[in-house]
Amino acid sequence: MADKIVVAGVSVDTRHWIGGQRVASAATFTDNSPIDGRPLGEIARGGPAEASAAIAAAKAAFPAWAATSRTERARILHAVADGVEKRIEELAIVETNDNGALLRSHRRGVMPRVAHNFRFFADWLLKLEHEDFETRGHTNHVSWDPAGPSVLITPWNAPLMLATWKVAPALAAGNTVVLKPAEWSPLTASLLADIAAEAGLPAGVLNVVQGYGSEIGDALTSHPDVRRISFTGSVPTARRIAGSAAANLTPLSLELGGKSPLLVFADADLDLAVDLAVEQYDNAGQVCLAATRILVEEPVAEEFTRRFVEKAATLTQGDPRHESTDIGPNIHPRQLEKIDAFVQRALAAGARAVIGGHREDTQYYAPTLLTDVAQDSEIVQEEVFGPVLTLQTFSTDEEAVRLANDTRFGLAATLATGDPERAERVTAQLVAGTVWVNCFFVRDLQAPFGGSRHSGVGREGGTWSFDFYCDVKNTVTAPNGWKNHG
Ligand SMILES: NC(=O)C1=CN([C@@H]2O[C@H](COP(=O)(O)OP(=O)(O)OC[C@H]3O[C@@H](n4cnc5c(N)ncnc54)[C@H](O)[C@@H]3O)[C@@H](O)[C@H]2O)C=CC1
Ligand SMILES: O=C(O)/C=C/C=C(\O)C(=O)O
């Protein structure tokens, strides 16, 4: 196996990064580009041995990193952000080749956000405090102590953005990290390891191991030296991780799937509502937050559908490296098969494809809108993770809320309405970690982020991230301090 591959002119090390060293594995796996299925290279395929080595390195590096002052930790995280900013173009081009998402989004939105993830949590660390309070003259002081080695397991739909949304707060908290990126998109995590080392992050503080799901994952998540596990991905994998973490009672943060609704009320600005709906095809529908169930109030349903079809027809599907492309490929032929199977079962059950309903080839799926779908049908209840939306109608606010809440998920909801009171009333009744009113995907890192029900466990973001990654401590001091006990 070659130690390095070159992807669109960028050299990427294909080995693990453990304790500040590149480490090869005897086994490898092939990483293919979703753009055309071509192999990008052979990647080191870790297992229990690599998992143990990475956790040992994280454990060894922990005391010194935990003892590093907040200002020094923040300084190094800002230096990582500087390194990301210097390499935005390289990161963007590698990520697009590896996961197929749009190059223009990576350049302008995603990679700047990666840098921001580091800057934000570095700055938040410096202002993290809880005002002291008194109990019968005693002072309560709250502090956030580093917890220890943290295992971070991330998916392929937004690889570096979702990885750094976990890596940055974990490092800011004073924890050391073992990051395992998804096997379908491992490359930018390796570049991050280089950037972090160049920024002065000490050896062993960030470790990156690659490998297939449970082959390496079980050893990472069941290890007794791991103090935190944060995972973004599917519900079945979350169950398995929770099972293996249970033996050690390792605290978990789980950000899982969604089947979020977009509620379009008759009083909405219909053009805005249509824009919000068409936006759900972003990243070829591979977004956990996507509002894939469009619920439209009966009187405007026909007009909404007409305008939606018109707008969707303006989308360009194709090579994600081209500036004019709006929808790229799906991550893997297996994912495409899964998407198509969902759609064909829905059509067989009586759904009607207003647009799409078929694959374009082995990597691209036609943007699809399905109507005549039953609330209890698979296509309405299960996450497809492709460019597939359903449309249902409702007649009253009560019905809208009932339909919106009637899945096992609860990640997000989007409302289009011209009535602020209705927005407030409906929002209060929705089960969702995030509700957007007349907007979508406006994200602030200080906001709590996560899902209810099967969409997740816990919240990350701002202080919530530190609450998760740290051992939160309350110190109660008697009125006369230590002198009180002589
Ligand atoms: N919430 C989200 O953002 C995401 C949701 N999904 C959903 O999951 C479906 C399947 O996609 P997959 O790639 O199979 O998701 P997955 O949940 O299996 O994979 C996500 C990550 O978990 C890792 N993993 C798998 N098994 C593991 C184990 N036993 N221990 C530790 N880590 C393990 C994978 O290697 C990858 O890094 C998608 O169709 C979509 O519905 C997938 C990716 C992201
Ligand atoms: O943190 C964000 O801003 C976005 C998160 C998106 C996902 O978790 C996803 O698409 O899987």
The biggest sheet amounts to:
7 strands, mixed
Reading off the top of the CATH hierarchy, the class of the largest domain is best stated as Alpha Beta
Q: Runs with pLDDT <50, length 5+?
A: none
Cα radius of gyration in angstroms: 23 Å
Span between termini:
67 Å
Separate helix tally = 15
Bound molecules: 1,4-dihydronicotinamide adenine dinucleotide, the ligand O=C(O)/C=C/C=C(\O)C(=O)O
Describe the structure concisely for a colleague.
It comes from Streptomyces liliifuscus. The protein is of the alpha/beta class.
Set out the fold topology.
Elements lengths: L3 E4 L2 E4 L2 E3 L2 E3 L4 E5 L6 E6 L3 H20 L2 H17 L1 H12 L3 H25 L5 E3 L2 E9 L3 E4 L5 H14 L4 E4 L6 H12 L7 E3 L4 H9 L6 E5 L2 H12 L5 E4 L5 E4 L5 H9 L14 E5 H15 L20 H16 L3 E4 L12 E4 L6 H4 L6 E7 L2 H9 L6 E5 L3 H10 L4 E4 L18 E2 L4 H8 E8 L9
Parallel strand pairs: 9-10, 9-12, 10-11, 12-13, 14-15, 14-19, 15-18, 17-18, 19-20
Antiparallel strand pairs: 1-2, 3-4, 5-6, 7-8, 8-22, 13-21, 16-17
This protein binds 1,4-dihydronicotinamide adenine dinucleotide and ligand LM24SWP5.
1,4-dihydronicotinamide adenine dinucleotide binds next to α7 and α8.
